[in-house]
Amino acid sequence: MSHAGRVKRREKAENSPSGKIINSHDNSSIGGSHPALRGAESLAQSEPGAKTMQTPVTIPVPVLRLPRGPDGFSRGFAPDGRRAPVRPEVPEIQECPIAQESPEFQEQRARAALRERYLRSLLAMVGRQVSFTLHEGVRVAAHFGATDLDVANFYVSQLQTPIGVQAEALLRCSDIISYTFRP
Amino acid sequence: MAMRQTPLTCSGHTRPVVDLAFSGITPYGYFLISACKDGKPMLRQGDTGDWIGTFLGHKGAVWGATLNKDATKAATAAADFTAKVWDAVSGDELRTLAHKHIVKTVDFTQDSNYLLTGGQDKLLRIYDLNKPEAEPKEISGHTSGIKKALWCSEDKQILSADDKTVRLWDHATMTEVKSLNFNMSVSSMEYIPEGEILVITYGRSIAFHSAVSLDPIKSFEAPATINSASLHPEKEFLVAGGEDFKLYKYDYNSGEELESYKGHFGPIHCVRFSPDGELYASGSEDGTLRLWQTVVGKTYGLWKCVLPEEDSGELAKPKIGFPETTEEEIEEIASENSDCIYPSAPDVKA
């Protein structure tokens, strides 16, 4: 059975200036008044066929964030992910009267307090002269700058080494045995 | 202030995206699977595009992918001469179905008990997923490679498209009921159960036929060769994309072109509306999927409609310090991490 009787119903947006266009996105009307928009924003529009028309100034729909991509090291399907049974969160802590704290709860509180103290100590070190004891009895001094998220590296400046002063350096925390400073 | 469409780009694939499919609406939302020539189909959350997992196992380009209705199972068709069935919750491979040539298309029945496959060996195969040892039932008749095969009429019939024909088969008798001939290559086919509508694209035409009788209903012409089209669940709009890299949105009743969007950097191979009709997804030669809002400016998924006067503290701040890169490039670079880099409303706000 051959296909016959095709009905042509399309109207080109550019050829109907009488106002049938519902949304015409034109490069030329956007570029001037929106200097923050370049590249992608002007790409996500229709072709500039209606240059002579007075097109309204439009702003792009805001988004909360971009879609998350693959994590790069696993195949995904997190076991605690989206298909966990849908049930309301019931915080267990609130059900427990304070007088009957479980040992786990006390331990967690202690851990949190110690962690907070440690992080505050790192903050106090910023900008100070710190003396590091490394392996093989090596001692170096430097101005402390920052640490990374996992406290795996310390960023320091003016690192005094036996072979000279290094303006900027990263100290690997696994190489550090201890460090000391005066606040 | 009129709003302009902000497409959400889902990156992760490294080769062209050739097929995509949505699941039905489940208690956990709905999901999207994408087939890619890199052999690694991906599962994403349907309303946000967030990556959930990658199905690893195929040894060739994946040409077709589908999810069952409740998104518990996935099926993929690949150039390694196999179709695979996967557990879509854990990502594990459940079954490998060997074929004699490249497999192009897979489709589950509504109850997920049977899988239909089709490919370059010109045979339609029906696998009983509850009987792993049983041989599939085969339907022959196509004279060129099968591009798309779909269950229809409550799984009582099968629709299949090869290069120049679309055929309707009866499932019980495994015989051909009707066929349509085209003088141009059929590029895609979509079946809409509610209303029994078949959407077929060929050349620059987007045609609508009855899925029961194959009689033509209407058709539209696009400005360029169309590779895929999808009809909105409420049959108000249709979207189509093809070789000119643009997506077109038409009013289904009047045929009027409503909107067109540039954004992809390569031909569009597949477009599909989400099951709730709130967004549509497009897959392209450029290796990305993009999500587009049906109603531009509506708050849905990651799109948040904020009036210019409101405090947009929760919205992204524009990333400064990249004067050379366009925002499109920043979008591509940053899509791996969850940092917000999309600008809020521009300098319009005082």
The portion of residues forming beta strands of chain A comes to: 15-25%
Binned strand content of chain B: 35-45%
Pair of chains with the largest interface and how many residues each contributes: A-B, 56 and 94 residues
* Cross-sheet strand order for the largest sheet of chain B: 2-29-28-27
Low-pLDDT residue intervals, each spanning 5 or more residues of chain A: 1-51, 85-96
What sequence of helices (H) and strands (E) makes up the elements of chain B? EEEEEEEEEEEEEEEEEEEEEEEEEEEEEH
Structure characterization notes:
The complex is a heterodimer of chains A (183) and B (350). Chain A contains four helices and six strands, in the order H-H-E-H-H-E-E-E-E-E. Chain A has 183 residues and is α+β, with helices and mostly antiparallel strands. The longest helix of chain A has 23 residues. Chain A starts with 26 loop residues before the first helix and ends with a strand. Chain B contains one helix and 29 strands. Chain B starts with a strand and ends in a 16-residue tail after the last helix. The interface between A and B is large, with 56 and 94 residues. Strand 1 of chain A pairs parallel with strand 1 of chain B.
